[in-house]
Amino acid sequence: SAEAVEAGRHAYELDRRHVFHSWSAQGSLDPMTILATEGSWIWDGEGRRLLDFSSQLVNTNIGHQHPSVVEAIRRQAADICTVAPQHVNPARSRAAELIAEHTPGDLDRIFFTNGGADANEHAVRMARLHTGRYKVLSRYRSYHGGTDTAVNLTGDPRRWPNDYGDSGVVHFFGPFLYRSRFHATTEEEESQRALEHLEETVRLEGPENIAALVLESIPGTSGIMIPPTSYMRGVRELCDRHGIVLIADEVMAGFGRSGRWFSVEHFDVVPDLLTFAKGVNSGYVPLGGVAISPHIAETFDQRPYPGGLTYSGHPLATASAVATLEAMEAEGIVEHAARLGEETIGPRLRKIAERHPSVGEVRGTGVFWAVELVKDPETKEPLAPYGGSSPEMAQVIAACKERGLLPFANFNRIHVVPPCTVSVDEAHAGLDILDAALDVADAMH
Ligand code: PLP
């Protein structure tokens, strides 16, 4: 309505005057206003409807405004809005039980946080106290959050201005065949050489100094590079051999995104600690956490765990997680995501890759796909440089939006990351738009 659009314009003005935005130079921002959301759709400040193929920040796995989750928040708000973390609360207890039912292996103890970054902070703290060691290994091409330890674990340019050289984090190269650092030509070669590189990194850093190895089970923001199963098993074995705590960051890859409850299931690997957020309640209320294996939980049986938060297991957040997970089970949402990847998104993207010279590679699983855009398929020169944007990328994104699609973009990539609940028709409609928008990238060849 005209009134809503007017309210949106007012909100925009206030935003530009008073709101300080994440990761941005504040002076040059022109943020999109969102006035309404439902299912796979959002309505912008002018009242235009767009298909949300970003799931916001890849978190609305259950779609926008799922009625049973909205209702659970409403009921919980009427009942108890908040309790301190030291007290028992039914919403928290039930959420922990439900999460533990889905986590792999014996990861049955849940420490709740407010989001993904603090989940990783606490996982690293637990690992350091458990092992008595300080160093942590993590991948280049990764994202682990914006707080001090998490941003230093991160292997993307957002770390650079936050890295004072004292984080104790050492970065290594993970497997990424399309842009292989190991001159590999097959996945098996890439896996084996990446493992040798990691083994050598551990040896040269001194295994007895390394508390933890942190990895996204499937790296998300940095490009959805699915690691070979042999690599993930090799990492598990390497950690076991040296007493290194394996932390799987499932903040983006978890809760159905990859077509499984957790992405480590693809590789049949059980980490010692697993961090989650986003999809646990689709971000309707801020929530994250660490799932803890018994041998690490035991470290803190007698000795107090030195960490906590006022909102650990907040009732509104955990009640929304309970409703989310119950709806995901009842509606077969994880199975739907897996089928969408196999039958709709994967096949369509492979056709798109054939048709467009600007597409270097498509890769993914479930509703977790990356389209790698290049200036030249031979040299693989990216359409935007690492860490940056380009007029070409900006034009592709603008072409998507003009045609009614909100994409997720990072450097030279467009990610196809709709809600796990997106319908087959909606997926086709979004991919039609992407297909047409990529003509813009081809034209610049
Ligand atoms: N870990 C991964 C893999 C993520 O993708 C993100 C967010 O995008 C985070 C951690 C940080 O989560 P949050 O933004 O909730 O702190």
Automatic annotation (TrEMBL):
<keyword id="KW-0808">Transferase</keyword>
<keyword id="KW-0663">Pyridoxal phosphate</keyword>
<comment type="similarity">
    <text>Belongs to the class-III pyridoxal-phosphate-dependent aminotransferase family.</text>
</comment>
<dbReference type="InterPro" id="IPR049704">
    <property type="entry name" value="Aminotrans_3_PPA_site"/>
</dbReference>
<keyword id="KW-0032">Aminotransferase</keyword>
<dbReference type="InterPro" id="IPR015421">
    <property type="entry name" value="PyrdxlP-dep_Trfase_major"/>
</dbReference>
<dbReference type="InterPro" id="IPR015422">
    <property type="entry name" value="PyrdxlP-dep_Trfase_small"/>
</dbReference>
<dbReference type="GO" id="GO:0008483">
    <property type="term" value="F:transaminase activity"/>
</dbReference>
<dbReference type="InterPro" id="IPR005814">
    <property type="entry name" value="Aminotrans_3"/>
</dbReference>
<dbReference type="InterPro" id="IPR015424">
    <property type="entry name" value="PyrdxlP-dep_Trfase"/>
</dbReference>
<protein>
    <submittedName>
        <fullName>Aspartate aminotransferase family protein</fullName>
    </submittedName>
</protein>
<dbReference type="Pfam" id="PF00202">
    <property type="entry name" value="Aminotran_3"/>
</dbReference>
